[in-house]
């Protein structure tokens, strides 16, 4: 992090941390129970009105975080660029890909998208459902929750793989009744130099992309979405921890949004059972990742130039 944050008085950091922690905790206890209560009514009867109300409550929940970012973390500078061919709407239907470096990525996505795009859901681990309020809200709001099984578990019980895919398919299909943004972190985990070296990733700034989730989403939703959007997040001063972000120790964040054209051959393909399609799809994703890798390199160079200047 920057030397400026290191020079900040300790008392000011503590005060900011207490303010942020108190507000986020209070907001969670204020917004969480209504989401859960309304979600329980869906066990009796599904209701579009209940879904819309829950989204409104969730957006209010997120707006508190955004208020904190704007008013308690005013020293964080944002550089947001959007492809001129990308016309975002609160009533749109979007699939989104993004690089993944920190828990802060999701907060960045929510900060950007709250007033520009429908509520963002993302593929998440089933284990998160045990986080009070937040985990249950993920399930109620239609986040695709995946149970990650090891190769050994799947080898012993191949049905586990199909069961997971069926759950993801149902979650995707349920989104079609409303505007949505469905985010997929293609790397599957947060970037680190250790993971990068272990994978022997061919990309300078990224881990290898896992194309299966995107293929599934495009198979189910592809002809009914308004755009495939690629978000790139760069932290010029290094990827921060969640605590560092909320303590105001992230001087700069760069966000780039671009529209990805979906080739006609992608629609209707069978990623799971067609080896030729799977190889072609993975190659296409690798090409997108190569472009993204260069974009990250260019953005980092831009800020290094600014630092020298």
UniProtKB/TrEMBL annotation:
It comes from the Bacteria. It is an enzyme of class 2 (transferase). The keyword Protease does not apply. Pfam families: Acyltransferase. Its EC number is 2.3.-.-. Residues 94-236 form the Phospholipid/glycerol acyltransferase domain. Keywords: Acyltransferase, Transferase. One of its GO terms (molecular function) is acyltransferase activity. InterPro entries: Plipid/glycerol_acylTrfase. PANTHER family: 1-ACYLGLYCEROL-3-PHOSPHATE ACYLTRANSFERASE-RELATED, LYSOCARDIOLIPIN ACYLTRANSFERASE 1. This is Acyltransferase.
């Amino acid at each position: 992090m920057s030397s400026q944050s290191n020079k900040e008085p300790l008392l000011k950091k503590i005060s900011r941390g207490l303010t942020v922690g108190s507000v986020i905790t209070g907001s969670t206890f204020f917004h969480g129970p209504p989401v859960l209560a309304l979600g329980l009514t869906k066990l009796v009867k599904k209701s579009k009105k209940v879904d819309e109300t829950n989204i409104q409550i969730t957006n209010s929940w997120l707006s508190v975080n955004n208020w904190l970012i704007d008013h308690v973390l005013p020293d964080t500078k944002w550089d947001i660029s959007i492809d001129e061919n990308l016309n975002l709407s609160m009533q749109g239907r979007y699939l989104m890909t993004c690089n993944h470096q920190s828990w802060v990525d999701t907060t960045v996505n929510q900060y950007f998208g709250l007033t520009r795009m429908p509520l963002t859901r993302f593929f998440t681990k089933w284990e998160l459902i045990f986080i009070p309020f937040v985990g249950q809200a993920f399930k109620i709001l239609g986040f695709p929750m995946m149970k990650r099984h090891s190769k050994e578990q799947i080898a012993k019980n191949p049905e586990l793989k199909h069961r997971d895919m069926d759950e993801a398919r149902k979650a995707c299909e349920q989104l079609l009744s409303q505007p949505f943004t469905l985010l997929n972190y293609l790397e599957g985990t947060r970037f680190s130099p250790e993971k990068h070296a272990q994978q022997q990733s061919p990309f300078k700034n990224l881990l290898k992309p896992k194309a299966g989730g995107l293929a599934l989403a495009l198979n189910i939703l592809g002809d009914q979405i308004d755009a495939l959007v690629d978000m790139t997040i760069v932290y010029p001063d290094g990827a921060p921890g969640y605590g560092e972000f909320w303590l105001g120790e992230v001087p700069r964040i760069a966000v780039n949004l671009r529209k990805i054209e979906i080739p006609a051959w992608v629609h209707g393909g069978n990623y799971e059972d067609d080896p030729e399609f799977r190889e072609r799809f993975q190659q296409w994703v690798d090409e997108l990742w190569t472009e993204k890798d260069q974009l990250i390199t260019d953005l980092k160079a831009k800020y290094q130039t600014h630092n020298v200047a």
